[in-house]
Hints:
Blueprint: H1 3-9, E1 12-16, H2 23-36, E2 41-45, H3 51-61, H4 70-94, E3 98-102, H5 105-115, H6 120-131, E4 138-143, H7 146-158, H8 171-187, E5 192-196, H9 201-217
Helix pairs in contact: 2-9, 3-4, 4-6, 5-6, 5-8
The structure holds thymidine-5'-diphosphate.
Residues 19, 23-24, 46-47, 77, 102-103, 107-108, 111-112, 162, 164, 166 line the site of thymidine-5'-diphosphate.
Amino acid sequence: MPFVDWIKNTVFIxxxxxxxxGKTTQIALLVDYLRQQGHELYQTREPGGTPIGNQIRQVLHxxxxxxxxxxxxxxxxxxxxxxLVAQELKPRLAAGAVVICxxxxxxxxxxxxxxxxxxxxxxxxxxxxxTEGLQPDLTVYLDISPEDGLKRRQQAAQxxxxxxRMDAQSLAFHRRVRVGYLALIAENPARWVTFEAAGDPDxxxxxxxxxxxxxxxx
Length: 218
Ligand code: TYD
């Protein structure tokens, strides 16, 4: 493959959205499609994605840890992310893979920044340290109202899906998270593409696919 095409195909894509926005389904559909197209692909998620990150994820999600201070929470998310960036994301991108990550630094700004009201400039300093400045090329945002999102999570939990410490935050918290996402998108619209999460999953997938293909070949 010519060098120029190799560079074009190296893309870091993140998925963001409130809880219950259907990211997992959409990521699976996109990953299947891109693999069928022959793209070398690395799929991961946050918090987690490495053995160390997965241990941190357990601490973050454990309902027993309801007393966790917001500062502890941000540092744990940042710790998991630092490990993922150094161990996986940077090497995979350097090797020419398309990287797809379920949540990334924007989740910290939306949940810990807007949700918990932590100072955004301080968070950005911590995030920059943790990620060594690695930013997504494209962020897919799946939008859903906090009420509908939580309803979806509750229904999924009744069928065995995880109901974690972040799901259990108040509705007011989840409302602030969504407001935060909308503010982050307004700050940097060129990086984000927004889709209504309430629609038919196959139709949403077709739209996401079109945007991603366009980005991979532009
Ligand atoms: P997860 O089960 O992965 O949920 P989802 O499928 O919605 O991504 O749980 C991740 C939870 O952690 C989710 O509620 C968002 C939250 N979170 C933060 O609060 N800050 C962060 O930096 C990240 C990455 C996630």
